[in-house]
Amino acid sequence: MYNELPAKEQQEVEQALLHDADLAASCADLLLAQRALDGLRRAPSAQSTETILQYSRSFLRKE
Length: 63
Prior knowledge:
The chain is mainly alpha-helical. Helices cover 68% and strands 0% of the residues. It has three helices and no strands. The longest helix is centred in the middle third of the chain and has 18 residues. The mean pLDDT is 87.
């Protein structure tokens, strides 16, 4: 989660995690949440897409 930091700052984070159990637990919780979110579907279903397209077409009709 903090791998995008420069090397020096990454080492500081790692040291903080080693010395602060609460911080380490919070980081672990965030990593689990990140993995769960990464596994979620990132695209709408075909039915959702069709519903949106049908709704948008209603604005093109002349009444």
